[in-house]
């Protein structure tokens, strides 16, 4: 995958007009060529010695061949339009960047801790509930034990004993609000979500059988 980066320094007097044209006309026109997968426009937060305001637009291309097709079939026409409208009021240079590695935070809004002690630790269950595997850490829930009576004679639940010697070791996962709702649905009407405090001091959600 390649990034076709266009960095432009535009005169302050033309910035508003140019910015509107870029967002409403030029960038959509470039994407309409079918040669790129996406575009991202950013403002360079530095005061330029040469004056003006600097922006960077990054167009993502699947490969070098597709980018070359853009150069051959579309770039002359689109560059000519830019030069006609803003002649003498901008300076631009272009760079090709090869994507070597790309990583994403899968759930940027992941703000809940979930303590698990049963089936939610299984990979197959995680894929079914979250469509991804969770990466957790070990922690301990004090003053609780696994109840002898199971939900539907099959599924484990918590029992609050208030005994310091009782504890349950489990996994803690970070999940998003949307994923927490998915866990609610998975656990079903037989369970309720409660907030607990772990040995580490972290507060997390856990599920126990209703009326347990």
UniProtKB/TrEMBL annotation:
Entry-linked InterPro entries: AIG2-like_dom (IPR009288), DUF4286 (IPR025563), GGCT-like (IPR013024), GGCT-like_sf (IPR036568)
SUPFAM superfamilies tied to this protein: Gamma-glutamyl cyclotransferase-like
Top-level taxon: Bacteria
Cited Gene3D superfamilies: Gamma-glutamyl cyclotransferase-like
Residue stretches making up the Gamma-glutamylcyclotransferase AIG2-like domain: 114-210
Protein name per its UniProtKB record: DUF4286 family protein
